[in-house]
Amino acid sequence: MIEVNHLTKTYGNHNAITDLTFQIEEGKIYGLLGPNGAGKSTTMNIMTGCLAPTSGSVTIDGLDIYEDAMEAKKKIGYLPELPPVYLNLTPLEYLTFVAKAKGVKRSEIKDQVAYAIAATRLENYSKRLIKNLSKGYRQRVGVAQALIGNPQIIILDEPTVGLDPLQIIEIRDLIRDLGKNHTVILSSHILSEVRSVCDHLIIIAKGKLVANDTPENLERIFAAKSTVSIVVDGTQADCEKALSSIENLGPVLYTRNSDSTTTAVISIAPDYDINKKIFFAFSKAQKPILSMTNSHVTLEDVFLELTTEKESFGQPEAADPQAESILEPATSESGRSVAETEEHHQ
Ligand code: ADP
Ligand code: MG
Questions:
Q1: How far apart are CA 33 and CA 186, in angstroms?
Q2: Distance from residue 16's CA to the centre of ligand 1 (Å)
Q3: What is the pLDDT averaged over residues 128-153?
Q4: N or C terminus: fewer CB in 10 A for the chain?
């Protein structure tokens, strides 16, 4: 539906985005994620025809966003990072104005405005001045103006920024609803705020694509870093002996505890049903396991790892912008303790 081909945008000698290529399929909700300055707004401004790329192209259903601007733009509704605000208008007046500006047929204006107001649940606020609305409701007005013209694709630049947790939940529900009738692309620098609504994540860092996959796949690829932590009534030697009977285990980290038990943190392969094997191995060795805790890498861990300094990946500039090269499970995460990893589950 949307093809983004080798987009590069340069400001002076600074590359805001570099060789970005990805596709958007119809009917899904996409999250464009990356820390501040990653190039999200630049990408969205180019995709919506508001900014010219230095090189590369964007096509919407085969229409070039520049060559066939008029037709292509009709397919997109956009909530920019800094939407124009008309504080002294009511949502009803503002949306009517937007409909006229977008060239909606006179006979359809009323219906379209009513649809946008209903879709963003603004019914009870449509006649209040925008300046008297809370930030959350103003943001809904911004989403509503993107819906005018009934575009297939809705692009929202950081729709949750500056909202309180309750408002974030409301906007998230609204986006989920929009996803039933539209293809939605939203950007965020906070994964947890949008993760639950996104079918697909496009993660960029420093203007480059670092991952492009479903949340589930990203989690699975990184699951290689999962561990099982056990506390055993025995010594390290007892643990080593019991574990030696199990194949395919990763490195094990031992700590001797003050109550003469031993904690073993065992790295495990993804999808490897290991808990039973560990249980039986220690049972056979007559060394009781006092506790067993699994720790899985969360998507938040993945996001942080992908978007922090490239140097931490061990192959800084040579990195191919394709996800696979950076998603090597071999990436070291040894600096993070089990306790820290587990915090993400709480
Ligand atoms: P994001 O939306 O992910 O925070 P942006 O797309 O706004 O990132 O910015 C990407 C990079 O491009 C940043 O380093 C930013 O400083 C730079 N940039 C954006 N707009 C301009 C501009 N008009 N002139 C110069 N640099 C810009
Ligand atoms: Mg931005």
A1: 8
A2: 6
A3: 94
A4: C
